[in-house]
Specification:
heterodimer; A: 118 residues; 7-stranded mixed beta sheet; 4-stranded antiparallel beta sheet; 0% helix; globular; B: 6-stranded mixed beta sheet
């Protein structure tokens, strides 16, 4: 597609429910990132994929958070047993990757999925 | 651990003014720095990307400078317009790892 696409744009969940957020990166972009953005704050890193490999998941706040990118394209961020503190905008970004896997280019963001946990 | 701060947190200016937004980072071992714009309820749009070997980048009315040794970058907006109203964020990528660390942003309002 022309840009990074995320769905759903808005999700309301009851505390304890599981949610799944989808990201379609720009075609051909090897690198994919998930960020969490609380109201009035900058995005906080969650996890990074290079193709299907999850190379960094150091930002995932707990083991309730799980991300996958099984075929190196679409990615899903899953949050199990949602809590109120999970309420935030979840942003996906993709980037082309240069030689040797080093990111030299821009980050391209989707519009985000706003999660509200009641 | 890299920390990024932005000053001011919010700024309100009349249309036509030139303005400067500031970004500071604690670890000067960066690979590149990127400035973004975020409109309410939207994702981030890349404005300018500066590689660590560069001192500045320009795009239209925007100019971004980078001083790695002092851990600072500035975004200069010339002849501001109401359409420039948004939150501006800077992000730095270190030499190790692929993560970009973001600042909290500066919320800009340009009044007609």
């Amino acid at each position: 597609g022309a840009g990074v696409s995320q769905s759903p744009r808005y999700k309301v969940a009851k505390r304890g429910q599981d949610v799944a957020l989808r990201c379609d990166p720009i075609s051909g972009h090897v690198s994919l990132f998930w960020y969490q953005q609380a109201l009035g704050q900058g995005p906080e890193f969650l996890t990074y994929f290079q193709n299907e490999a999850q190379l960094d998941k150091s930002g995932l706040p707990s083991d309730r958070f799980f991300a996958e990118r099984p075929e190196g394209s679409v990615s899903t961020l899953k949050i199990q047993r949602t809590q109120q503190e999970d309420s935030a905008v979840y942003l996906c970004a993709s980037s082309p990757t240069g030689l040797a896997g080093v990111i030299t280019g821009e980050l391209f963001f989707g519009e985000g999925s706003r999660l509200t946990v009641l | 651990k890299q920390e990024v701060t932005q000053i001011p947190a919010a700024l309100s200016v009349p249309e036509g003014e030139n303005l400067v937004l500031n970004c500071s980072f604690t670890d000067s071992a960066i690979y590149n720095l990127q400035w973004f714009r975020q409109d309410p309820g939207k994702g981030l749009t890349s404005l300018l990307l500066i590689q660590s070997s560069q001192r500045e980048q320009t795009s239209g009315r925007l100019n971004a400078s980078l001083d790695k040794s002092s851990g600072r970058s500035t975004l200069y907006i010339a002849a501001s317009q109401p359409g420039d109203s948004a939150t501006y964020l800077c992000a730095v990528k270190g030499n190790y790892g692929q993560n970009f660390v973001f600042g909290p942003g500066t919320r800009l309002s340009v009044l007609p």
